[in-house]
């Protein structure tokens, strides 16, 4: 029988990555904050975490699926920390940048007119912290909270 802390961990494992992904897509499609390659890398573990958290609602052992979701969120936080360090110039990043191309029409024209998004430039920040930095902070804190909640076994 799941404890109260298990249920809270499960809710965090589902809600936080879903909200972070929702925010990323809102920024992308609502405000034109197109993701660079490392931004995409941060999204993939969140997709996995949502899937694992959903799986924990129907498959045993629930705590294992929740823990795996927590670790996936932690991976996204680690990638976000690395990306934030690249943005702030603390270390060298990867040389790859990404651009977006729209489907249809002339493929070469679409590629040539697509915006180039660099991984080492901050597109938006809040209180001096970039989106990658916020992802690092929120994801790491959430993952640690999930793992801590799973480590606590209440006998009530």
TrEMBL record:
<keyword id="KW-1133">Transmembrane helix</keyword>
<dbReference type="GO" id="GO:0015035">
    <property type="term" value="F:protein-disulfide reductase activity"/>
</dbReference>
<dbReference type="InterPro" id="IPR023380">
    <property type="entry name" value="DsbB-like_sf"/>
</dbReference>
<feature type="transmembrane region" description="Helical">
    <location>
        <begin position="124"/>
        <end position="150"/>
    </location>
</feature>
<dbReference type="Pfam" id="PF02600">
    <property type="entry name" value="DsbB"/>
</dbReference>
<keyword id="KW-0472">Membrane</keyword>
<dbReference type="GO" id="GO:0006457">
    <property type="term" value="P:protein folding"/>
</dbReference>
<dbReference type="InterPro" id="IPR003752">
    <property type="entry name" value="DiS_bond_form_DsbB/BdbC"/>
</dbReference>
<feature type="transmembrane region" description="Helical">
    <location>
        <begin position="44"/>
        <end position="60"/>
    </location>
</feature>
<feature type="transmembrane region" description="Helical">
    <location>
        <begin position="12"/>
        <end position="32"/>
    </location>
</feature>
<protein>
    <submittedName>
        <fullName>Disulfide bond formation protein B</fullName>
    </submittedName>
</protein>
<dbReference type="GO" id="GO:0016020">
    <property type="term" value="C:membrane"/>
</dbReference>
<feature type="transmembrane region" description="Helical">
    <location>
        <begin position="65"/>
        <end position="86"/>
    </location>
</feature>
<dbReference type="InterPro" id="IPR024199">
    <property type="entry name" value="Uncharacterised_DsbB"/>
</dbReference>
<keyword id="KW-0812">Transmembrane</keyword>
């Amino acid at each position: 029988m799941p404890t109260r802390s298990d249920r809270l961990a499960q809710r965090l494992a589902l809600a936080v990555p879903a909200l972070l992904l929702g925010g990323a897509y809102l920024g992308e499609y609502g405000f034109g904050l197109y993701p660079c390659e490392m931004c995409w890398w941060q999204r993939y573990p969140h997709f996995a975490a949502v899937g694992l958290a959903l799986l924990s609602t129907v498959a045993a052992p629930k705590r294992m699926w929740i823990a795996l979701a927590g670790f996936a969120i932690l991976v996204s936080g680690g990638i976000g920390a690395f990306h934030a360090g690249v943005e702030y110039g603390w270390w060298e990043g990867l040389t790859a940048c990404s651009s977006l191309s729209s489907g249809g029409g002339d493929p070469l024209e679409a590629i040539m007119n697509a915006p180039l998004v660099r991984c080492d430039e901050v597109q938006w920040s809040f209180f001096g912290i970039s989106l990658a930095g916020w992802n690092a902070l929120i994801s790491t804190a959430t993952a640690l909270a999930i793992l801590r909640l799973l480590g606590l076994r209440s006998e009530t």
